[in-house]
Amino acid sequence: MNAGYGLTVRWSLEDAPADAADQLREYVVGTSIARFMFLDGLAFKVWRMREGEWFEGTYVFDSEQDRTVFRESFEPGAATAPGSVMIGSAPITIEDWEVVAIAEGPAGFRRGAGPEVS
Fold it and tell me: Are 97 and 59 in contact (CB under 8 A)?
């Protein structure tokens, strides 16, 4: 048994428009969460951001094949993906990584918007 297969897609926000962070929050909560809740083979996805620095999608897939299928479908259109359009540039990093282990704490996994989204 394994903990999953990771993938990171990261964009730089250094030269992004001033309202990019707000646009990304609205898009993720209003559209993207629903899309990924039903993506076959996806165990979970976390959207992370350091405003003014970077925005990323952190994925964990059930199998290496699921990760490969997603990556191969995403990469050709990465420069025109909704996040890229809002940010004004393509991802700076798309990389596979090993999930060594996952621990779920007593609070459990949460689903939904972060504190900056009302």
Answer: no
